[in-house]
Amino acid sequence: MKIKDILYNIEYTAFAEGKECCVDDRNIKSIVFDSRKACEGSIFVAQKGVHVDGHNYISTAIENGCNTVICQDLPANQPKGVCFVKVANSDIALGKAASNFYGNPSEKLKLIGITGTNGKTTTVTLLHHMMRKLGVHAGLLSTIVNMVDDEEFPATHTTPDAVELNSLLARMVEMGCEYCFMEVSSHALVQNRVAGISFAGAIFSNITHDHLDYHKTMANYIAAKKLLFDNLPESAFALTNIDDKNGLVMVQNCRAKVKTYSLQTVADFRCKIIESSIHGQQLQLSVYAGKPLEFWTSLVGRFNAYNITAIVATAILCGFDYEETLRVASSLHAAPGRFQYLHGKGITAIVDYAHTPDALQNVIDTINDVRSKQQNLIVVVGCGGDRDPLKRPIMARIAASGSDHLVLTSDNPRTEDPEAILNSMEEGLSDEQRAKTVRITDRRQAIKTATMMAHEGDIILIAGKGHETYQEINNVRHHFDDSEEVRKLLND
Predict the structure, then answer these.
(1) CA 62, CA 89: separation in Å to the nearest integer?
(2) Which CATH number fits the domain 105-329, given the four candidates 3.40.1190.10, 3.40.50.300, 3.20.20.450, 3.40.30.10?
(3) Which of 39, 116, 225, 342 is deepest in the core (most CB within 10 A)?
(4) What is the pLDDT of residues 383-399, one digit of tens each?
(5) Nearby residues of 492 by Cβ (< 8 Å), 6 or more positions away
(6) Which CATH number is 340-491 given?
(7) Helix 302-317 to helix 322-329 angle, to the nearest 10 degrees?
(8) pTM (two decimals)
(9) What is the pLDDT of residue 216?
(10) C-alpha distances in angstroms, 481 versus 86, 336, 411, 461?
């Protein structure tokens, strides 16, 4: 592609050998932001990252054969034959350039984004499964996996970088996808990873304590989430959960068509839980105050009632038949590692990704709502290292308050001392709660201990890692799968 086409809709000034000039007709074969991947025919985009400034690697990119650079700050040394494109914000320029390079794929399908603290993965996964069952070609961009119809691609981040994102969207367009359902993280919004992307709709699930190690304050975190809705066009829809106190904040000054969903108050899409058990729940849904319809779902818990309401509402807003949507919704199953339950030796084990205070509270409340007085609940939980430390004592307190026995253990300690993380968690416990708590740093041994503590009929909740198949220790990922571990123990 010609460089001038890649720079479409980007404000820039071009320089060569220290002098302002016009961009030439050179051909571009790829866009990179990692200087190690630069080669002849590539554009290198120098970004000012949180930990690394790409401007320090411009010379490396040029040494590797790159002769076109997009940057915010011009380098003192500008070798002959290299075109420097100066922009106000490299992150935004990367997003727009990547979108142009791949033919603006987000404009050629209906891209629906979801943001919020909890429920993103479940919601997009269910939407993708629903569309496939309705016979529609659709893509998925999630924390667990990226999919083009039924073809899987590994996911490394909740929201991919701008180049990978547009590459995946282009693949979806090529394969005839009509829709794509995408998790949009607060990090991605602040870092402009979705710059140049066109959304046909957006969903807000909820917002609770998380990622304050990055955003510093809840106000910043809320503002980051709101960016998705601020940038929606008039032709899009904005679906928001008004039971969350920030539900209407998200759509303030939003140009898109605002629609609401709720379990507690009047909304465009109103859901009621009629009956609930460990095996599922009977829900009643009314649309625009119309006649309520009941349906069954195997997804357990109040939080899943919200997720189901959001996906049905989204399908209706996309023009699908209400009753057919409910029929398909009732056949859907949870995403991997989301309230995933396993049975063996008369014991029920539930593996869940809950790694925030609110998510953990929701899962424990759901279990306590459906378990009998004779069933003990044993919770195994840890907190990740190098992440928001303020939530650690809160999560331990929630786990202890809602369980009969608590096992504190490692999650992904990353570069932190696991014992220091557990010390921080234990600070949230009262003396009475400490009496029913054990500390076992080794996660495998912690899960084994929980199964040994359990009697027939008891329930074990293993929280924090869910679908993850690794444990990260000192920057090394070791294979570890909670479901795999507990399945072996219960089937021995």
Answers:
(1) 21
(2) 3.40.1190.10
(3) 116
(4) 999 998 999 999 999 99
(5) none
(6) 3.90.190.20
(7) 140
(8) 0.84
(9) 66
(10) 46, 11, 11, 14
